[in-house]
Amino acid sequence: MCIGCRERHFQDELVRLQASTESIVIVELKKLRRPGRSVYLCPKVGCMEKVIRRGEVVIKGSKYDKIIVRLEQRQAERLRYAFSFAARRLRASLGVGPED
Fold first, then answer.
1. Where is 66: in which H helix or E strand?
2. Residue 48 CB-density burial (10 A; 0-12 exposed, 13-18 middle, 19+ buried)
């Protein structure tokens, strides 16, 4: 499920955001995926903007536990920049245009 628009998609149609010890990292390739908690965004620019406006990413650690990563301005800009490339590649692999 996309954390921006809350729509359900196949996992291969989403950009993965994985929590590291101090920030959020975009993981594109399956071979680079490490075990751990992640959330997903669809490749729409509006979904990423919703997450940045909120200023934090909430990842459920378990039924009773949450990981909250607060995005500082610099982190948000880096995330936005990395997301633009990841989303563009994902849209190209799915065969959809930039406005979808």
1. strand 66-70
2. buried
Q: What is the pTM of this model?
A: 0.73
Note whether 9 and 2 are within 8 A (CB). Answer: yes
Q: Are 40 and 48 a contacting pair, CB within 8 Å? A: no
How does pLDDT run across 14-64, given as a tens digit for each residue?
Answer: 888 887 666 677 776 565 666 677 888 888 878 888 888 888 888 877 667
Question: What is the residue whose two structure tokens read 């039924």?
Answer: 63
**Contact at 8 Å (CB) between 18 and 37?**
yes
Alpha helix positions (H), 1-100: 45-54, 73-94
Nearest Cα neighbor of 57 from 16, 5, 19 is 19
